[in-house]
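User: Second chain of the day. Same drill as before.
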Amino acid sequence: MASRLTGRAVTDARAASGRPAEVTLDGGTPVMVKRGDAPGAVRAEVAGLRWLAAADAVAVPAVLGHDERWMVTERVPTGHPDPEAALLFGQALAALHAAGAPHFGAPPPGGPEDAYIGLAPMRNTPGIDWPGWYAEHRVLPYVRGAVDRGTLRPAEAAVFERVCARLPELAGPAERPARLHGDLWNGNVLWGADGEVRLIDPAAHGGHRETDLAMLRLFGCPHLDRVLAGYEEAAPLADGWRDRVGVHQLFPLLVHAVLFGRGYAEQALAAARDALAR
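Assistant: Same format as last time:
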């Protein structure tokens, strides 16, 4: 597969069940080969990586070849999280967000509207204002999905509906659409051996910049204080952003509730109730 997509012979391969496989091309070039089974998943990921790369901010692995089911990207030699790299990552992430998007819900150029966040469907549909778009396309679809799967009880859905009704007052000052990675948990942040951070596996779209930062906090990014220091140095966040973290975490928590069960549903409920108490 790697040979067909890159036009170069494969000299070594390491099989990896359920994750990208590492392959060595002729000349000793290591690459990663990943399969996407869902329709449009590879196209969405490739478009996302290229859109992020076009911002010339945070580095991403280069796409070396792809078709509808498979993609080949450069392999990133990884090192250890470092405070200085974290500071630079925060600055670069601010620059990525500042590159902007045409509107909230904008898919990357060439990417499908029906995309994915991990294994969950994620629809990129245009929205004019962030509160309304976030409620309609990033909160309520996953509330319904969690209820359908029995992860959330029907009566609990009303908690999220009340948060959505109050989003115009909870959202803080209006901001223009940011260019988001969209699935920025710690596993998608690669600390390169060369001291530069790379981002992988995007669910890229136009959104609110605080959403990416909230996901970094939710899943425990190393040296997060340094990341945030670098970010605020480059692009200060609006007052009260810490109070809004839980609102932005509703999206990834509800996605995880749909995919992985009740524990994440309870975390999402706690964040929603905390938002309503403010």
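The CA atoms of residues 131 and 167 lie 5 Å apart.

User: Great, on to the next one.
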